Amino acid sequence: MHAGFPDFRLGNVLATSFTGTLSERHGNAVERIPTPHRLIDWLAVNGLAVDSCTTAQLGLARELRESIHAAATAAAIQDALPASAVQVINDRSAQGRAAATLTPEGQRRWRLSSASCVEDALGVIAADAISIIAGERDGKLALCASPTCQAAFFDTSQSRTRKWCDMNTCGNRQKKARFNANQHKNPRSAE
Ligand SMILES: [Zn+2]
């Protein structure tokens, strides 16, 4: 539908899927929500459909995203949370008026106060970030081992030893790099 824009990375944790809309922060950064319309698309994919989004609302979303990234990174390395990031997360959480609703099938759906309320959707994302940073959920915040990525992700693996934010991108690239390095060292064993 929106050819030419970078794909979204899908994850099962809302807050870190959201921070993943900017990737390769320490390399050639890829912005996956470059326009208000792409934010609308991302929210729809994540169960937070809105009808419209202004440039100012996209600005709020990106500010929240980078604040979650900063706070989650600090939490992952057990550093003090940056006060400005905490403030933004709390402001977005307080401003949102989304309601959790239960479907007859027993699933949770978010109901936004109006279809134009990007702020409601951001409130849901901010609350999700709070729950993982506060350590309320089963899992551990960690940083991606890829030097160009270093994204904060939520490790829910049994052993809590996940190394990459995303197996299909950072994980694969790292594996390939190691494979090529080994081939270079032992050219004959590569056959
Ligand atoms: Zn990564």
From TrEMBL:
Residues of the Zinc finger CGNR domain: 141-181
Pfam families associated with the record: ABATE, zf-CGNR
Source species, domain of life: Bacteria
SUPFAM superfamilies (UniProt xref): Jann2411-like
Cross-referenced InterPro entries: ABATE, ABATE_dom_sf, Znf_CGNR
PANTHER family on file: BLL6575 PROTEIN
Protein name per its UniProtKB record: CGNR zinc finger domain-containing protein
Originating organism: Streptomyces gossypii
Phylogenetic placement of the source organism: Bacteria, Bacillati, Actinomycetota, Actinomycetes, Kitasatosporales
